[in-house]
Amino acid sequence: MNFPVRIDGEGPLAQESGLPGHESATGEPAGMGRRWVDRIDRWCERFGDSVNPILVKETRQALKSRQFVVTFSMVLVAALGWTVIGSLSLMPQIYTSPSAPRMLGGYFLLLAVPMLLVVPLAAYRSMEAEIDDGTFELLSITSLSPRQIVWGKLTSAMLQMLLYFVALFPCVAYAYTLRGVDLPTTVLMLGVLAVAGVAMTIYAIFCAPLAHSRGGRIGTLLAVLFPLLMVEYLVGALMVTMIQRGNPLGGELTLFVVAFVVLHTVTIGNLLLTATAAQLTPESENRSTGLRVALLTLTSVSVGLVAYALATFETAPEWCFVPTLCVLATLWIAAGAMLAAESPSLTPRVRRELPSSFAARMLFTFLTPGPSTGLVFGCVGGCVTAFAGYLGVEYLRGKAGTSSFTVGWLGEIVPLLLLVPSYVIGFLVAVRWVVAIARINNHPRVEIGIAAFAAIAVLMALIPYSFGLHFNDYQTFPYSAWQTTNWAWTLSEAKDGNLSVVHQACIATAAAGLLLIHVVLVSPAVLPRRIATPQRVRAEQERTGAEI
To answer: How far apart are CA 312 and CA 251, in angstroms?
Structure first.
């Protein structure tokens, strides 16, 4: 039977479909039942529009690509095959004996291949393709920032990892029911795999924009592939051993190690992603402040975690303190060399964003771009890190229960915490002026600062030693004050306790004086001034903000 339907909402069909103007059996308008669905639908539309468009594009391309389809299908087939083969190989003991370690180890290795190898390589190739095809030039005229592009690549890769997790989760659950592996170990296994996959994806994305030539891209691909294979082997061996033998760490130490790894993955990943976005940012923009903030964040997190470890665990110096101190020292040296090699030209757009008030200039001036501010920032950051290391050494030397062997080698590195920053300051000042001279007729990249630092360090060690050999008829000769610039020999003498305190103080004073002279000579560059924003620029910014 055909019921008439009227536009004004009358008729039986209109009543059933809940159009306005009619009430339900409860006395409420029939349209009330669909209002919350409409709200959710509108919210989903707004959320979809606000999501990073790079994420949407990359996800669509990745899920439709042959690489993902083939890899995902192969993983599913391999998981099914291992389920059948592994279960049959455990018969009939599978019903009476714990059989989870063997099955779970196989599933872990199957999941590690796409997580630690396929997805990072796909993210690397996707970023490299954007650069080769010139897509970034088109995206630069849109409202998308380079950071959004980089984060879109990462989140798309993380979504692919989630799909692999979901696909193999039933297999992991099946292995867990076979007994032999506890739930915390299973969760830790999946967490380690997820963190390692995200970390290697970030590393792959970071390496993609580094090279600009064909030969450089081949080298970069090898620099990505070898660490991926190494990490996959190490993580696989570690997790399979833990599945077979259990977690050897205690509960508190396990929680700290998890927090240590996760926080460092987040902070180091933020630094690498910020550096990647800086490589894609035009030179007219501020590409340095974000890197300096990320470096400070990483240093603060590392120092805080190491301080907690020193106060809590007895074996912290061996596995936590010294390695973290060495990594931070290397990071600050490399960052300081690149910051000292930045371009001294500040565009009006950058200068309009500089701090203006006295308090802001005191706190944030050395976060602004420029080689002079970068030199001071790198020197101060390295010295603060060395001072934190000195406090840690003194705390351990006075801590009850510290072995005499540990106290002995901790005492040997105390002079190094004073002399290494001193030599680094001198080398960074030299890098600043060498790169400034090179910029007269060239436009080198900031990576030249690391090469200049290495060259200066080698020359400062070889030149005085060569003169010493010459004046001693190329015979062995003892250390003297003429070898002060020979940092390798001087540090060796200080480590052995053969360098006087006065000599060490003179080296530190000379480095501080050299930095102070540099700041005084180029004070306008060290303390750049903010310029006013033109009226037309303010009007354009207000109009753009209103449209957004």
So the answer is: 13
